[in-house]
Amino acid sequence: MIVFEKPKSMTEAELHYCPGCTHGIIHRLVAEAIDALGIEGRAIGVAPVGCAVMAYNYFACDMVEAAHGRAPAVATGIKRSLPENVVFTYQGDGDLASIGMAETVHAATRNENITVIFVNNAIYGMTGGQMAPTSLPGQVTQTSPYGRDVKTAGYPVKVAELLSALDGPAYIARVAVNNVKNVRSAKKIIQQAFQNQIDGLGFSLVEVVSACPTNWGMTPQKALQWIDEKMIPYYPLGVYKDKRQEGEASDK
Amino acid sequence: MGKKVLMKGNEAIAEAAIRAGCRHYFGYPITPQTELAAYMAKRMPKIGGTFLQAESEIAAINMVYGVAATGRRVMTSSSSPGVSLKQEGISYIAGSDLPCLIVNVQRGGPGLGGIQPSQSDYFQATKGGGHGDYHLIVLAPSSVQEMADLTGLAFDLADKYLVPSMLLADGTIGQMMEPVELAEGREPVFTEKDWAVTGTKGARKHHIVNSLYLVPEELEAKNFERFARYAEIEKNEVRYESFMMEDAEYCVVAFGIAARISKNAVVAARKEGLKVGLIRPITLWPFPKQVLADAAKHVKGFLSVELSMGQMVEDVKLAIDCSRKVALCRRTGGMIMSPDEVLEQIRLLAGGDNA
């Protein structure tokens, strides 16, 4: 009996992520969702600019590499061209919530029928640990060496809360991948975000609170603890918007 | 070909694109190309196509990138400031070797500039525009008929060479109405391409559309491969119009609306006994270098006529290796020269030689 194997939707390529980075877990959850729904042959992914830039080498489905922040616009083009395919983006916080904020908000408000996996690790990883739009108040980074001062650098962007205020999007949720319980919940919710697209419900975004031990300057274990102690209190987990549930509620 | 109809230049592009099998249009409002988007907004939903007013020019060109990655015909249109915004996406599309059509109905610049016609995006269009080593195929219509004809050609060339095409028009041709005979409609062709992302269907290895090459040897090789295709384009696809050049001693070089004005000036100059002709580049890239070099063997001087401070004039000088005098007749900022102004410059060029 096989109890553990690599998802079919991941290639044989060796991941380049740092030790303790949670991108690997999230890649796996996305691949498991694609496998579980049997959509490997019609899935098309859009990779970001950032640590996950080479995600196109890791997912076994067709992939497009987008410019920084533009993945939702690229995914919009793909989906409009091939509505029967299942189109997803995989983006980090700098990509989605800073340079690509306009593309994110407008894809959401159009309720574009795509799935967005948003990895929030509160830092720019690829470029070596600069302040992200989601860096916490007081967080020390390369470009906030004295800690993020909200008086000059402003406050973190709460993407799930922001987007769930729009009428457009079908599904907005926030999960974390810092312990077994949270990973199991994340797996269910990520699969739901793909199922929504298959069912034609529209824009589904899952914000995944994740760890960057390298640029946080922590051990992998400490980084996972820091998610519990600092990240989740600022970024509460849960389903923020679910048109499927709203629909059922209004039917009753 | 069908019967002649009266159309605005911008509308002719839109209808010609649909007839060339384009079913996806993404744009953002900007003067003076608005009629094109409006036409698409009306027609696309009726024929099962996509019209999407994007949140920005940046988003629009990235939507174009998405459709192009799936191997379908796709276009966007804008005017100068908007085309500047698209440059990032155009560079990615060029770097990923995807075909598409970008229309620039030029207006005066720089900055917000004005909304009157201009040709001052020549450098941006023909030298790359965005970052990196690349070219676009650049076609310059000078009539509403050519707005239509060159739109179809632009799609065909983009598909053939996997290079994005640009139609470099201007506000005059975009806005004016002329009779136009449109090509028969072609149904969209969905041939399976060995690079397009369409879903693996479990039947093949995954396709990756990408412009990232972190190994410098690979990026260099990729650029050399692309430039080998550019060399093919330069060999096969140069298009130009030659007018009264047989016995010409002087040669006016102009494209688009400036060429139409220049044609009147050439005819007037001939009446004065001045042996002058016109070479009108239809492809600005590839530029008709050899045509001008050949002309330089017979003519005494060139006059570049442009709605800019002088951009194409540099390519004219390069084409003839500065072997002849190259004068410049220019208006800019939305101002247009009259045929008399061009005629005066022709007289100066010819007279200067006699003096």
Q: Would you spell out the secondary-structure blueprint of this structure?
A:
The complex is a heterodimer of chains A (252) and B (355).
Chain A: H1 23-37, E1 43-47, H2 55-58, E2 62-65, H3 71-81, E3 86-92, H4 93-99, H5 101-109, E4 115-120, E5 123-124, E6 130-131, H6 150-153, H7 159-164, E7 171-176, H8 180-198, E8 204-209, H9 213-216, H10 220-234, E9 238-242, H11 243-251
Parallel strand pairs in A: 1-2, 1-3, 3-4, 4-8, 7-8
Antiparallel strand pairs in A: 5-6, 7-9
Helix pairs in contact in A: 1-8, 4-5
Chain B: E1 4-8, H1 9-19, E2 24-27, H2 34-43, E3 50-53, H3 57-69, E4 75-78, H4 80-95, E5 101-106, H5 122-126, E6 137-139, H6 144-161, E7 165-170, H7 171-175, E8 177-181, E9 208-209, H8 216-236, E10 240-243, E11 250-253, H9 256-271, E12 276-281, E13 283-285, H10 289-296, E14 301-306, H11 312-319, E15 325-330, H12 339-354
Parallel strand pairs in B: 2-3, 2-4, 4-5, 5-7, 6-7, 11-12, 11-14, 14-15
Antiparallel strand pairs in B: 1-8, 6-13, 10-12
Helix pairs in contact in B: 1-2, 1-6, 3-4, 9-12, 10-11
